[in-house]
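Support request from a user on the community tier.

User writes: "When I paste my structure tokens into the form, the page sometimes reloads and wipes my input. The last time it worked, I copied everything first. Here is what I submitted, just in case something in the input itself triggers the reload:"
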């Protein structure tokens, strides 16, 4: 017997009597899971069901439905209908009323590289800087190492490295040359784009992912902003913000609770195959830390991130893409010859659209307050611990 537990059902005598009968039948016949309560709101369980484990639907239908199916499978509940899936599908609306003949703008999680020099500069290492100084050069200057003494870059190195690195008369016209000293010229240009963007983000205060395998992923530390709020223009064209750090308590097996902090993060990659120009793909993600501030980079990262984001819908993902795009495009180039980015996400026009007002209440542009795109309250979630999931999924 599946019983809905809600504030109303707990007050009504008939549902209460049915649960009492189900409890007795389960006890008399030795069936421990005869009664399966589904908790659909924040009400407390009554004395009849406090000893029975319930399935929560409070975080969304899909979340509770998945847990219910898992429960029914675990007790070998019979599936009486052979065609249950298509039969259930016919009971749902097809969505024709949602479609509109009006064209609609779609956002892609991609931005354009607006300008990139056609000529790259070639430099020579004239002295050995030593291991420590070399690390500093890698941190402060974006370059491609052809060999230990030949380097290619968009701009000259900082002046403090001039005793080690000298410009040459040689130039690389990467768009006209297929190879340069045995290296594909376009790969050199692509590598320099990623290194230049990485350098800008690090100089602004962003940090690279604590997992050394994820060098293309960046996160905002707690000290990045005074109030921990990242302001940006949302997809409705109004100023909004999201919290760059949140706190979550994961409930694990045997009632163990674990407090984590999660930081706003995003991964940058070159979007290939669109056309001959360069494009940057932005993928939002999260970086996790323990309560003591230690990074979590083992295989438990995948389940944590999935548990945090499983109820994120398109608007929340889009808000995070927009926040990352505006952060990235607001960073200044290192010089006149450095690359520049085109502000704004690439948009695609669809010949058909959706009647959004059917799905949600119309947005009222007369609102005066700045809305948040992020729920800043602390959450407590059940951790779906699945073994064998890589941290960089």
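"...and here is what came back when it finally went through:"
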């Amino acid at each position: 017997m599946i019983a809905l537990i809600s504030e109303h059902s707990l007050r009504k005598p008939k549902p209460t009597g049915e649960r009492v009968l189900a409890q007795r039948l389960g006890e008399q016949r030795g069936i421990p899971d005869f009664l399966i309560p589904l908790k659909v709101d924040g009400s407390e369980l009554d004395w009849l069901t406090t000893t029975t484990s319930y399935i929560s639907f409070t975080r969304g239908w899909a979340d509770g439905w998945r847990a219910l199916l898992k429960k029914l499978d675990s007790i070998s509940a019979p599936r009486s209908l052979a065609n249950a899936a298509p039969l259930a599908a016919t009971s749902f609306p097809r969505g024709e009323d949602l479609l509109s003949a009006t064209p609609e703008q779609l956002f892609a999680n991609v931005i354009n590289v607006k300008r990139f020099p056609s000529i790259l500069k070639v430099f020579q290492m004239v002295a050995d800087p030593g291991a420590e100084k070399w690390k500093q050069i890698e941190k402060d200057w974006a370059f491609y190492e052809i060999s230990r003494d030949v380097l290619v870059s968009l701009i000259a190195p900082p002046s403090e490295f001039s005793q080690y690195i000298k410009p040459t008369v040689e130039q690389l016209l990467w768009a006209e040359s297929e190879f340069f000293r045995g290296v594909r010229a376009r790969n050199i240009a692509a590598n320099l784009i990623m290194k230049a963007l990485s350098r800008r983000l690090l100089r602004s205060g962003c940090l690279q992912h604590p997992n050394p395998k994820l060098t293309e992923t960046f996160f905002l530390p707690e000290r990045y902003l005074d109030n921990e709020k990242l302001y940006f223009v949302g997809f409705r064209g109004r100023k909004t913000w999201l919290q760059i750090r949140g706190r979550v308590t994961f409930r694990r097996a045997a009632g163990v609770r674990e407090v984590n902090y999660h930081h706003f993060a995003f991964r940058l990659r070159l979007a290939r195959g669109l056309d001959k120009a360069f494009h940057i793909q932005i993928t939002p993600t999260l970086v996790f830390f323990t309560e003591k501030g230690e990074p979590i980079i083992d295989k438990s990262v995948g389940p944590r991130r999935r548990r945090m984001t499983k109820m994120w819908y398109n608007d929340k993902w889009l808000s995070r893409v927009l926040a990352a795009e505006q952060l990235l495009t607001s960073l200044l180039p290192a010089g006149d010859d450095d690359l520049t980015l085109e502000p704004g996400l690439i948009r695609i026009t669809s010949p058909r659209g959706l009647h959004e007002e059917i799905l949600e209440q119309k947005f009222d542009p007369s609102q005066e307050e700045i809305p948040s795109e992020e729920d800043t309250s602390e959450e407590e979630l059940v951790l779906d611990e699945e073994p064998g999931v890589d941290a960089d999924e």
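Agent notes: The reload is a front-end session timeout and is unrelated to the input. The first helix runs from residue 13 to 29. The helical segments are 13-29, 61-74, 84-89, 130-140, 185-204, 301-309, 314-329, 356-359. Escalated to web team.
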